[in-house]
Design brief:
Elements lengths: L1 H12 L37 H14 L1 H4 L15 H4 L7 H4 L5 E3 L4 E3 L1 H12 L10 H13 L26 H11 L1 H4 L6 E3 L2 E4 L17 H11 L10 H11 L15 H9 L10 E2 L2 E2 L7
Antiparallel strand pairs: 1-2, 3-4, 5-6
The structure holds heme C (2 copies).
Length: 303
């Protein structure tokens, strides 16, 4: 596994990325030209056998097995590690070691300075379509301690290369649903299902869904086509990061995000249009409240 991950990091690291202003977290990204120089978080075997080590192990368990261990907080088929690959360790997959040292930070999304716990609560509310645990809950402490440990040796308030997802610029010709559908059929459906429904074994997801009631909701960062394209280009197909062209990444991201998913929990007065104006009009490239083939998207899936 180590060797595979190292190979993946090397191939992903050779792609170039552009920097953005630090206070704009709508699209996390980091300048990164040094191929193999990614930060290496500590190994599990380095963990001390004491109360701190125990807390790290608990945080790790919650991160990779979130749905099963925190059913009250998760409203879909995701674990944190569904989008933060290799247990939150992988560069260009919004690794926890890239995140932890960068908080507290201002976020446009909720227009305030967010603590690290508040940042995680955001992923519970939107990406996990759930109910965030309290900032002082044992689970939140464990998730924070796990992140803190992974970040051992990084510098606070200085971006570590490999943080976030590198930005994939929108191709000059935009994106195309039909081409995206074709990429999906050829390279994604085998794992994520013909209808983006994922795959279950004995009622438990072994491959996460990409749309529908068990996916991330309309308020999640991944609902932006630009963010999904970045994640996809650097992380998918699983085991072959960097193999899609920018165009293919945008096309397939658009295809995924033109499907229904759970409603944005910030829904304004029951109105898709009001919600679009308030939260989606200036939030990257997204289809919430847009008419596609005669149907307004953002209806939600009833959960
Ligand atoms: C559906 C995919 C998805 C899931 C599931 C998910 N996240 Fe995220 N997470 C993202 C995206 C996308 C971003 C980047 C946000 C952006 O660009 O706005 C992010 C950002 C973050 C950040 C900040 C990264 C940084 O560098 O500032 C942290 C911390 C984080 N997530 C933790 C979690 C935790 C903990 C969980 C589980 C409770 C979780 N995420 C579940 C997609 C996901
Ligand atoms: C070999 C199986 C496989 C293939 C092929 C594959 N994926 Fe994935 N994908 C996964 C797994 C597994 C995860 C969750 C990560 C984990 O658990 O390690 C994932 C996670 C994701 C996620 C974030 C989590 C979610 O459910 O929203 C997206 C988006 C995604 N894949 C898109 C794609 C796209 C687009 C393609 C095709 C270009 C693709 N995947 C091809 C296995 C695959």
């Amino acid at each position: 596994m180590r060797t595979l991950m190292t190979a993946l990091l090397l191939s992903a690291g050779s792609l170039q990325a552009a920097p953005i202003a630090m206070e704009d977290q709508s699209q996390l990204t980091v300048p990164d030209g040094q191929a193999a120089a990614h930060f290496a978080p500590p190994a599990e075997s380095d963990l001390p056998d004491n109360a701190f080590g125990e807390m790290v192990r608990q945080g790790h368990a919650l991160f990779v097995d979130t749905r099963r261990l925190m059913p009250e907080a998760v409203g879909n088929g995701m674990n944190c590690s569904s989008c933060h690959l290799d247990q939150g360790r992988m560069a260009h997959s919004a690794p926890l070691w890239g995140a932890y040292p960068m908080y507290p930070a201002y976020r446009k999304k909720n227009d305030k300075v967010n603590t690290y716990a508040e940042r995680i609560q955001g992923c519970f509310q939107f990406s996990m379509n759930g109910r965030p645990p309290a900032a002082d809950s044992p689970q939140m402490t464990a998730l924070s301690v796990y992140s803190y440990w992974l970040a051992t040796g990084t510098r606070t308030a200085i971006e570590t290369p490999g943080r976030g997802y590198p930005e994939v610029p929108q191709p000059a010709g935009g994106y195309d649903f039909a081409r995206g559908q074709q990429v999906y059929r050829e390279q994604c459906a085998i794992c994520h299902g013909d209808q983006g429904e994922g795959q279950k074994v004995a009622d438990d997801y072994v491959m996460p869904p990409l749309w529908g009631a068990d996916s991330y909701n309309w308020g999640a960062g991944m609902h932006r086509i630009n963010t999904a394209a970045s994640f996809i280009k650097y992380n998918m197909p699983l085991g072959k990061p960097g193999s899609l062209s920018d165009q293919q990444a945008w096309d397939v991201a658009a295809w995924i995000n033109r499907h229904e998913r759970p409603q944005d929990p910030r829904l304004v007065e029951g109105s898709i249009e009001k919600t679009r104006l308030k939260f989606h009009a200036n939030d990257g490239v997204n289809l919430y409240g847009q008419k596609v083939e005669g149907v307004v998207l953002g209806q939600g899936t009833g959960r």
